[in-house]
From TrEMBL:
<dbReference type="InterPro" id="IPR045861">
    <property type="entry name" value="CorA_cytoplasmic_dom"/>
</dbReference>
<keyword id="KW-0862">Zinc</keyword>
<comment type="similarity">
    <text>Belongs to the CorA metal ion transporter (MIT) (TC 1.A.35) family.</text>
</comment>
<keyword id="KW-0997">Cell inner membrane</keyword>
<keyword id="KW-0813">Transport</keyword>
<dbReference type="Pfam" id="PF01544">
    <property type="entry name" value="CorA"/>
</dbReference>
<keyword id="KW-0406">Ion transport</keyword>
<keyword id="KW-0812">Transmembrane</keyword>
<keyword id="KW-1133">Transmembrane helix</keyword>
<protein>
    <submittedName>
        <fullName>Transporter</fullName>
    </submittedName>
</protein>
<feature type="transmembrane region" description="Helical">
    <location>
        <begin position="278"/>
        <end position="300"/>
    </location>
</feature>
<dbReference type="InterPro" id="IPR002523">
    <property type="entry name" value="MgTranspt_CorA/ZnTranspt_ZntB"/>
</dbReference>
<dbReference type="InterPro" id="IPR045863">
    <property type="entry name" value="CorA_TM1_TM2"/>
</dbReference>
<keyword id="KW-1003">Cell membrane</keyword>
<keyword id="KW-0472">Membrane</keyword>
<feature type="transmembrane region" description="Helical">
    <location>
        <begin position="312"/>
        <end position="332"/>
    </location>
</feature>
Length: 339
């Protein structure tokens, strides 16, 4: 087996990598000329053999090459240009058309780093295409290069779905660690920017759940009436992989609820701090009010200022202001303790 180094480029046809699977043997790497021989039936596939071809749609010649050399149904090409990219698997002309959303290879919790993988799965071929490097399909490619045995294109598809579930599990685990850190900061009363970070993380999880959750209706129809070439074991594996995927999505929904509760707690904490600060400011203003009023009145250049000619007039005013301030402080403290 050719354990070639993983790269994200493609040749002139847009092919990133191609493999021939021969039943009980590991996948054999193919070049474009070899792939053309099988697609044009110059070299026929044995009943237990099948191909996996992975393409880069960023290459402008990819779609044209596929239309000219593969027998993919028109629904596959339509899905490449549809605005709706929710995860789904549909049955079309004895083929399975799958639209799978995944995260980029160097995912950094940015909502813009979610991209789409399109698949066309038939009896003896699986064609996958993407515009950006994705994690799940790269894991599948690593498994093929490592010599893992695949007996049908459906095994490739179910392995890909499980890889995607593993990637999502890693995202949920990392998100949980971030939330734990925010909770630690909340308990230590060192919040800084963590509230904004929670909002970004929650929006990301909502978008992931919306895009990655398989459409139940399409999946139900497929499992009820699969293509004739699908074995019962393949249907069972597909159902099991979707159930595992549903568990991950459930964990993601629980994490969103946890973030929501944490945001509410942080908002209440911030509101309490603001109320405390406003109360202190009000007390300071009230305590400073007597001296401000007194100095304002005493500073007027009019006749009749009390104790203006008294040698102890200043100290009398100071005593009166101090007494009024002490009384005000006692009243404020009394009401604070009462609350």
């Amino acid at each position: 087996m050719n354990n070639e180094r993983l790269q994200y480029g493609s040749d002139q046809s847009g092919l990133i990598c191609g493999y021939l699977f021969t039943g009980r043997h590991a996948g054999k790497a193919l070049h474009t000329t070899d792939v053309l021989q099988y697609l044009n039936q110059t070299q026929r596939l044995e009943p237990s053999h099948f191909l996996w071809l992975h393409f880069n749609l960023a290459n402008a010649s990819t779609e044209k090459w596929l239309r000219e050399n593969s027998q993919s149904p028109e629904e596959f090409y339509e899905s490449l240009h549809q605005g709706s990219r929710s995860t789904r698997i549909e049955h079309a002309d004895q083929h399975l058309i799958a639209v799978i959303n995944d995260v980029l290879h160097d995912f950094t919790f940015d909502p813009s780093e979610i991209a789409t993988l399109w698949l066309n799965v038939g009896r003896d071929i699986m064609i996958s295409a993407r515009r950006k490097p994705l994690k799940s399909v790269d894991h599948l490619r690593n498994a093929v290069n490592a010599g893992e045995i695949f007996l049908s294109p459906m095994e490739l598809l179910t392995h890909l779905l499980r890889d995607q579930a593993d990637v999502l599990t890693g995202i949920v685990r990392d998100a949980t660690a971030k939330i734990d850190e925010v909770e630690d900061h909340l308990l230590a009363e060192r919040l800084s920017r963590k509230r904004a970070n929670l909002g970004e993380l929650r929006r990301l999880l909502v978008r992931l759940q919306r895009l990655l959750a398989p459409e139940p209706a399409a999946l139900f129809r497929l499992l009820q009436k699969p293509p004739g070439w699908m074995a019962d074991s393949d249907v069972h594996e597909l159902r099991q992989s979707t159930e595992e995927f549903s568990v991950v999505l459930s964990d993601m929904a629980s994490l969103q609820e946890r973030i929501k509760l944490l945001q509410e707690e942080i908002a209440a904490h911030v509101g309490e701090q603001n109320s405390r600060s406003l109360f202190v400011l009000t007390i300071v203003t009230v305590l400073a009010l007597p001296i401000n009023i007194t100095t304002g009145l005493m500073g007027m250049n009019v006749g009749g200022i009390p104790w203006g000619q008294n040698d102890f007039g200043f100290w009398i005013v100071v005593a009166l202001v101090s007494l009024i301030t002490v009384i005000g402080a006692w009243i404020a403290r009394h009401f604070k303790n009462k609350d």
